[in-house]
């Protein structure tokens, strides 16, 4: 086994015991990254930074000052601003942008001794479910069926692909409507979106501020617990970050869920849901039941309105958040013709800089906020959002500890397969995940099995707000019971 | 304290070609909050710094940067609300007002459309002794200022300076209760005075720290009263908004011009188009900036980067407890405690520094005399030399000491004017300077008595005449004063002359 194939937990233990150095571990990942170019996961490699950080981590390890993430090589989604390193949100409009500041999440990770291997591909501005909207081109899923290239999902497709292919031990992701959980499910890894406000958004390029939340993407639930602990915590620079202490998430992984109540929401049984997904869901229920949990059928009656509400609120916020990309101060500015004024500068810059999907969402968002349509769309969507949140609150008030749903309506699909489809077909990928963002809850995707084609499938567990530890414990039980150990066979 | 009651002033009436018209004016005042740091960043608000030197990452709208509320700006807004006797909203929220402009880096201004921090209040605007307009305040909200576009530095390029970007503004919105150009100027003056007393805005109009958008409409006499009774705007005329006025003089000119323009259109059978206009002081006219149809769709929505702002009543109470005395109260006190006239009290309370100066001078002295000296001599002299009260060469202690010399009869009022001149140019202690310049009145009755005796002895004829007609005793007084070089106290001389002549 190569060092890059280790889990964070295993690497941590080996590093602490001195069986492995952070430099060797990092070298192993850097080699894997270079070999992994066909996956198109890493878009900016930072080997110098990685080795410097690895040497510093080895020094800390030697001095006995070694937090859990010390010496752990990670990939960082391109949405995170990293000081002096290209941070483009996979968009041409931020071409050449190198921030003068470090995001709170990466600052925390670096303070804990983590190593940055480079920046990871993603959908442009995190808008997409297949990682096909990136200015860097598609990310390829390490899992393959026949010779067909598959999507790793999106928007954290680079993160998912990199972790699944062992290019790094873990990666940061962000999740606005499912962007951590869906790609995690498509690539057979673990991804958790924490409670809104658990992780600072400062220095993360904004998509939809009231929904965006960063989280870890890892090879195991234990890794997610360790990684999440290092990312989390109150940040006075983010007004929406919660002033709550960060519990020891790893310590919560007792494996004991006896007596816990697991809700099965009937509204998540969609028409035309593939049998395989249905079967997987049933399998998950049995596993949790066998572990001593009580399975309860519940109703989350406003679920069917979640996707439309999400596709009003998220574009509305995005249309405003992306207004700053105007060519005036940084990033791309269009070459202007004689006589062009400020309006032409905006129009040409944004037409050249933004891809089609971003333009579509900016237009939708502008429309739903415009005079005369605001109440019909944006305000109504906000009301729906409040109802969805209340659905969950009522379920939790009834004693439900966690809710089990499928993570995605299918396994990974082929790249380009949806190119000519109605955009709504793509948006349907988020049907099981957006409710969690709208309600601000923690949700985790756990790989549970393979479909008939041999592709990974995941289940989602949704937890009580601020109870990520308990949620991860449920995920841990599911993971142990599923015994998912399959790996993509290396073709790259 | 005096209870001051006021009559309501008459609205300004403009005679059109066909009939009379009345003015209706409402205002939005943008007042820069006095704060060292910006509304959502730690960057400095200092005026006149090098372009783009006071800019935090969030002010420049760098990717991923987030606003964090500056609590002091909230406190200042609450203090302003309390100063305008307004309702303080314990829960308010910030919204985004979206539009594209190069001096607006975020592409939106963070403002408070739906839930402003301050609700209804009022401002008493005096238009003369015993006459005042009570202008209702609709709301005050906090918002970010924009930066500055510079178009005249290069023939081919424009530049932007973000120093002002994100500085906190209070937008103070009045009801359409102002009824003429002079009232409009008086309203801004009064509001500015209150803000300066509160220390929540320095009121510097030249730097743009206080600027007004003025909504002007005209209506036939009687219509406004219908509006007042129903609060139904349809009784009033269509308004035009004159943007960004930062001079009282131009404001009154602009309102007058705008009202006459509207009257001419209406009397000509036309109708007023609701629009935004700019005043051109060179041409003395307003011109259209954009019509209602061209108006931006600002797509306001709650700012998702900021949670609703919740403040506690206890905190508001603490601010209320630390409020300074405001102009109306101070004026009433000056009138009550010092017996000042309405006019003098207004002059002396116009700004805090003048009021404080006066109070130091007046403390333990004759208030009216103190007011006369401060207003007529000191302010007169300061104005003449273009100095502010802070720059006065004569301190309150010096002026007070001088007034003491008058009060004790040691110098005459006439001498005091000379002494004031000496204090102004040379400085020094008033009593010492009076002595040094030989100004002290002779109150030593022995010396005066000798002079009286001497003049009586030398003028027997006059003595006879005076005994026959006591009114002529004044001649002796004049002679004595002349003999003593004007230093003898006239009252003492009078008494002695009367006594010696046996009158």
UniProtKB/TrEMBL annotation, chain A:
It holds the Pfam family Amidase. It catalyses: L-glutamyl-tRNA(Gln) + L-glutamine + ATP + H2O = L-glutaminyl-tRNA(Gln) + L-glutamate + ADP + phosphate + H(+). Keywords: ATP-binding, Ligase, Nucleotide-binding, Protein biosynthesis, Transferase. The keyword Ligase applies. InterPro entries: Amidase, Amidase_CS, Amidase_dom, AS_sf, GatA. GO terms for biological process: translation. Its EC number is 6.3.5.7. GO terms for molecular function: ATP binding; glutaminyl-tRNA synthase (glutamine-hydrolyzing) activity; transferase activity. The active site is at 77 (charge relay system), 155 (charge relay system), 179 (acyl-ester intermediate). One of its GO terms (cellular component) is glutamyl-tRNA(Gln) amidotransferase complex. Heterotrimer of A, B and C subunits. PANTHER family: GLUTAMYL-TRNA(GLN) AMIDOTRANSFERASE SUBUNIT A, TRANSAMIDASE. This is Glutamyl-tRNA(Gln) amidotransferase subunit A. The gene is gatA.
UniProtKB/TrEMBL annotation, chain B:
NCBIfam families: gatB, PRK05477.1-2, PRK05477.1-4, PRK05477.1-5. One of its GO terms (molecular function) is asparaginyl-tRNA synthase (glutamine-hydrolyzing) activity. This is Aspartyl/glutamyl-tRNA(Asn/Gln) amidotransferase subunit B. Keywords: ATP-binding, Ligase, Nucleotide-binding, Protein biosynthesis, Transferase. Heterotrimer of A, B and C subunits. It catalyses: L-aspartyl-tRNA(Asn) + L-glutamine + ATP + H2O = L-asparaginyl-tRNA(Asn) + L-glutamate + ADP + phosphate + 2 H(+); L-glutamyl-tRNA(Gln) + L-glutamine + ATP + H2O = L-glutaminyl-tRNA(Gln) + L-glutamate + ADP + phosphate + H(+). The keyword Metal-binding does not apply. SUPFAM superfamilies: GatB/YqeY motif, Glutamine synthetase/guanido kinase. One of its GO terms (biological process) is glutaminyl-tRNAGln biosynthesis via transamidation. InterPro entries: Asn/Gln-tRNA_amidoTrfase_suB/E, Asn/Gln-tRNA_Trfase_suB/E_cat, Asn/Gln_amidotransferase, Asn/Gln_tRNA_amidoTrase-B-like, GatB, GatB_C_1, GatB_Yqey_C_2, Gln-tRNA_amidoTrfase_suB_CS. Allows the formation of correctly charged Asn-tRNA(Asn) or Gln-tRNA(Gln) through the transamidation of misacylated Asp-tRNA(Asn) or Glu-tRNA(Gln) in organisms which lack either or both of asparaginyl-tRNA or glutaminyl-tRNA synthetases. The reaction takes place in the presence of glutamine and ATP through an activated phospho-Asp-tRNA(Asn) or phospho-Glu-tRNA(Gln). The gene is gatB. Residues 356-501 form the Asn/Gln amidotransferase domain. It comes from the Bacteria. Belongs to the GatB/GatE family. GatB subfamily. Its EC number is 6.3.5.-. Pfam families: GatB_N, GatB_Yqey. Transmembrane segments: none annotated.
């Amino acid at each position: 086994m190569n060092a890059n194939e280790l889990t964070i937990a295993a690497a941590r233990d080996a590093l602490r015991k001195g069986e492995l150095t952070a430099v060797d571990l990092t070298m192993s990942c850097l080699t894997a990254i270079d070999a992994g170019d066909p996956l198109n996961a890493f878009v900016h490699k930072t080997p110098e930074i990685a080795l410097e950080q690895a040497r510093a981590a080895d020094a800390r390890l030697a001095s006995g000052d070694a937090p859990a993430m010390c010496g752990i090589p990670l990939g960082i989604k391109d949405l995170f601003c990293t000081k002096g390193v290209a941070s483009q949100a996979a968009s041409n409009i931020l071409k050449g942008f190198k921030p003068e500041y470090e995001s709170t999440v990466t600052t925390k990770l670096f303070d804990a001794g983590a190593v940055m291997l480079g920046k990871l591909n993603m959908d442009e501005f995190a808008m997409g479910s297949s990682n096909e909207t990136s200015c860097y081109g598609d990310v390829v899923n390490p899992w393959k069926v026949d010779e067909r290239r598959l999507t790793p999902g999106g928007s954290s497709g680079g993160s998912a692909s990199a972790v699944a292919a062992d290019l790094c031990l873990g990666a940061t992701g962000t999740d606005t409507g499912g962007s951590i959980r869906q790609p995690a499910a498509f690539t057979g890894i673990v991804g958790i979106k924490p409670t809104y406000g658990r992780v600072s958004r400062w220095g993360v390029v904004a998509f939809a501020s009231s929904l965006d939340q960063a989280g870890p993407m890892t090879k195991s639930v234990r890794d997610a617990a360790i990684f999440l602990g290092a990312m989390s915590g109150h940040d006075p620079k983010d007004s929406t970050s919660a002033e709550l202490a960060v519990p020891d998430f790893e310590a919560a992984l007792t494996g004991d869920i006896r007596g816990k109540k697991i809700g099965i929401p009937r509204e998540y049984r969609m028409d035309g849901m593939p049998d395989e997904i249905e079967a997987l869901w049933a399998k998950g229920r049995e596993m949790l039941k066998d572990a001593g949990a009580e399975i309860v059928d519940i109703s989350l009656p406003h679920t069917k309105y979640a996707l439309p509400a999400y596709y009003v609120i998220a574009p509305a916020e995005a249309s405003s958040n992306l207004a700053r990309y105007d060519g005036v101060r940084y990033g791309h500015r269009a070459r202007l013709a004689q006589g062009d004024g400020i309006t032409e500068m905006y129009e040409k810059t944004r037409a050249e800089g933004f891809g089609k999907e971003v333009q579509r969402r900016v237009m939708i968002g502008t429309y739903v906020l415009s005079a005369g349509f605001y109440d019909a769309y944006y305000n109504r969507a906000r009301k729906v959002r409040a109802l969805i949140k209340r659905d969950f609150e009522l379920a939790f008030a009834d004693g439900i500890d966690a809710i089990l749903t499928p993570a995605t309506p299918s396994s990974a699909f082929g790249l380009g397969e949806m190119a000519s489809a109605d955009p709504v077909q793509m948006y349907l990928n988020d049907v099981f995940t957006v409710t969690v963002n709208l309600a601000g809850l923690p949700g985790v995707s756990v790989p549970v099995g393979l479909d008939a084609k041999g592709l990974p499938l995941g289940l989602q567990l949704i937890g009580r707000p601020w109870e990520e530890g308990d949620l991860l414990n449920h995920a841990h039980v599911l993971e142990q019971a599923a015994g998912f150990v399959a790996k993509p066979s290396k073709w790259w | 304290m005096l209870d001051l009651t006021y009559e309501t002033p008459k609205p300004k009436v403009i005679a059109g070609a066909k009939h009379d018209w009345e003015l209706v004016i409402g205002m939005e005042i943008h007042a820069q909050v006095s704060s060292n740091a910006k509304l959502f960043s730690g960057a400095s608000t200092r005026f006149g710094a090098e372009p783009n030197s006071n800019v935090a990452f969030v002010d420049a709208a760098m990717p991923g940067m987030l606003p964090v509320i500056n609590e002091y700006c909230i406190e200042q807004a609450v203090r302003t609300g309390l100063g305008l006797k307004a309702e303080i909203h314990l829960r308010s929220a910030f919204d985004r007002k979206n539009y594209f402009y190069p001096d607006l880096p975020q592409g939106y201004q963070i403002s408070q459309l739906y839930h402003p921090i301050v609700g209804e209040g009022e401002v008493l605007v005096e238009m003369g002794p015993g006459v005042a307009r009570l202008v209702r305040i609709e709301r005050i909200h906090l918002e970010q200022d924009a930066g500055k576009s510079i178009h005249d530095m290069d023939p081919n390029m424009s530049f932007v300076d973000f120093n002002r970007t994100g500085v906190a503004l209070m937008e103070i919105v009045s009801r359409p209760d102002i009824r003429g150009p002079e009232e409009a100027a008086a309203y801004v003056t009064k509001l500015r005075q209150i803000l300066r007393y509160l220390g929540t805005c320095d009121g510097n109009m030249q730097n743009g720290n206080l600027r007004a958008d003025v909504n002007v409409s005209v209506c036939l006499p009687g219509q406004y009263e219908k509006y007042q009774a129903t609060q139904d705007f349809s009784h009033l005329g269509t308004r035009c908004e004159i943007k960004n006025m930062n001079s009282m003089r131009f404001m009154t000119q602009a309102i007058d011009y705008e009202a006459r323009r509207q009257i001419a259109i209406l009397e000509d059978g036309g109708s007023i188009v609701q629009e935004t206009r700019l005043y051109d002081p060179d041409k003395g006219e307003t011109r259209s900036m954009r019509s209602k149809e061209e108006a931006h769709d600002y797509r306001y929505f709650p700012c998702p980067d900021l949670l609703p702002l919740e403040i506690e009543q206890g905190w508001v109470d603490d601010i209320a407890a630390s409020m300074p005395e405001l102009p109306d109260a101070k004026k009433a006190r000056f009138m009550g405690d010092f017996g000042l006239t309405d006019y003098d009290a207004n002059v002396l309370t116009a700004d805090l520094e003048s009021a404080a100066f006066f109070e130091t001078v007046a403390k333990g002295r004759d208030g009216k005399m103190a007011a006369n000296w401060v207003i007529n001599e000191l302010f007169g002299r300061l104005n003449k030399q273009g100095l502010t009260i802070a720059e006065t060469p004569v301190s309150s202690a010096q002026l007070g000491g001088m007034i003491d010399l008058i009060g004790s009869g040691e110098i005459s009022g006439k001498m005091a004017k000379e002494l004031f001149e000496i204090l102004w140019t040379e400085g020094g202690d008033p009593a010492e300077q009076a002595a040094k310049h030989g100004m002290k009145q002779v109150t030593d009755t022995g010396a005066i008595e000798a002079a009286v005796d001497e003049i009586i002895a030398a003028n027997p004829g006059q003595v006879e005449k005076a005994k026959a007609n006591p009114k002529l005793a004044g001649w002796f007084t004049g002679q004595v004063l002349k003999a003593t070089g004007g230093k003898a106290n006239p009252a003492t001389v009078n008494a002695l002359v009367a006594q010696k002549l046996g009158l």
